[in-house]
Amino acid sequence: MQEVKSTKLLKETLEAAGFEVEMGGAGMPTNLWAKWGSGKPVIAISTEIDALPEGSQTPGSIARKPLVAGAPGHMEGHNTHGGVATGAAFAVKTIMERDKLPGTIIVSFGPAEEQLISRPFLVRAGYFKNVDAALIIHIGDNLDTGYGLQNYAAISAKFTFHGKTAHGANNPWDGKNAVDAVELMDIGFDKLREHLRPTYRAHRTITMGGVQPNIIPDKGQIWWYVRDATAPAAKETFDKLTKIGEAAAMMTGTTMDPPEFVASAWPQLGNKVLSENLVENMELVGLPKWSADEEAFAKEFQKANDKPTSGLAKALPANKARPQGAASNDNGDVTWVVPTGLMKFPASVPGIGYHAWPAAVTPTSSIAHKGMASGAKVLAASMLDLLTSPKLLDAARQNFEQDTKDTRYFSLLPADAKPPVDMNKATMDQYAPELSNFYVDAAPRYH
Ligand SMILES: [Zn+2]
Questions:
Q1: Are the beta carbons of 231 and 412 closer than 8 angstroms?
Q2: Counting CB atoms within 10 angstroms of each CB, which of 219, 276, 427, 429 has the fewest?
């Protein structure tokens, strides 16, 4: 929600390239929605640009060396998404003008993917209503795609209990212990685990656990994530969890606020037809030609992180259905309202896991830049296929209808949910002055 600098750069870059850019959609100041062209078909690129807390790292340094100690940084490489998305969009626009192709291209940068926030709000606000096909891009260590269910549905919410303070020894009979309610909710859910589908995941942390033992706590809070292979299954478990919370309040004579919704996501549903088209274009474009220096750096980097020293990707992965992962991405919601192809591009070093500072070593390297260029070419090629082949678009739509016929999209957002736009504001207020010494003063332009 603090992607202020990034969205400003992307807005100016896209506007200079002739796109119409809207900021602030669906109540999020850093939401960027760019558009060029007119009429059908409407093809959208959907991606993210946010970073992660404490990820600051000096580019190219294999040893831990934050640029600004404690500051956030790109330890997943979402910074590479901007170049791939805008580069492809500009290339496609240029060809559409040259060849007078009808249609509209959209570039959507949604904020706060790392907290699973923005896309359910964008979908609810109707942004994807007129989109005929979408392509979701993400950094990876190869050109890759997948179809079917790719990851998990998730609902994240906080449960707050209110009791009554009293002296723990003098007059405990006057108190009502809100942390007891938290504990009973936890125990109650443990009893439910026996009856849940084997596919579920649920994890929690106690965010308010009292102050000191001789004060009976009047406030207790527990933050839950509930996940499952499908959104309806996650919702079913979440509703049971809420009932357990209400029961815990009853047992302790406390009260429970309605669940404070934090985030939600549907599992990503990759469209098989679009995935097959992406594979064709990946074979056409091919992997980057890595230099001897890049290959040597990758191996040294892998060795330093105790990973196999396989170097950089040299062959495309086999095109097969992938097992469903248990993590989540909020752009899953987009895939249930629009036929969506999923694409990864080879801008990171194989074996180096995300959400850890080593992943922040390479996202501005020549490895990342080459991978971004290949990704942009594949993305542009697939967008052109979608713009010029009604047959492909029809087949993707039919595949989508088939995939979604038993599970129709519904929003996991409570009716009154609003995006938490102040999320991470305090952190950025703290670090922005020091980080600004490292901002790149550039105005990239496409020609
Ligand atoms: Zn990501």
A1: yes
A2: 429
Task: Return the pLDDT at 320.
Answer: 66
Which residues have CB atoms below 5 A from the ion given as ligand 1?
A: 76
**DSSP 3-state assignment of 402?**
helix
Q: State which H helix or E strand residue 348 sits in.
A: none
Q: How close is the Cα of 244 to the center of ligand 1, in Å?
A: 33
> How confident is the model at residue 31, as a pLDDT?
98
Write out pLDDT tens, residues 353-384: 999 999 999 999 999 999 999 999 999 999 99
pLDDT, mean of residues 150-162? 96
pLDDT of amino acid 311: 98
Q: pTM value? A: 0.93
What's the CA-to-centroid distance between 432 and ligand 1, angstroms? 22
Written as one letter, the residue type at 114 is E
Give Cβ neighbours of residue 292 (< 8 Å, ≥ 6 apart): none
Distance 153 CA to ligand 1 centre (A): 16
pLDDT at 392: 98
Whether the predicted pLDDT of 79 surpasses 90: yes
* Interval 288-296 mean pLDDT: 98
How many angstroms does the Cα of residue 43 sit away from the middle of ligand 1?
21
**Which residue segments constitute the domains of the chain, with CATH numbers given?**
4-151+267-438 (3.40.630.10), 153-264 (3.30.70.360)
The alpha carbon of 78 and the centre of ligand 1 are apart by a number of angstroms equal to 6
CB 70 within 8 A of CB 57: no
**How much distance in Å is there from the Cα of 271 to the middle of ligand 1?**
19
Model confidence pLDDT, tens digit, residues 46-70: 999 999 999 999 999 999 999 999 9
Distance 50 CA to ligand 1 centre (A): 8
Distance of alpha carbon 54 from alpha carbon 66, whole angstroms = 9
CA 215 to ligand 1 centroid distance, Å: 43
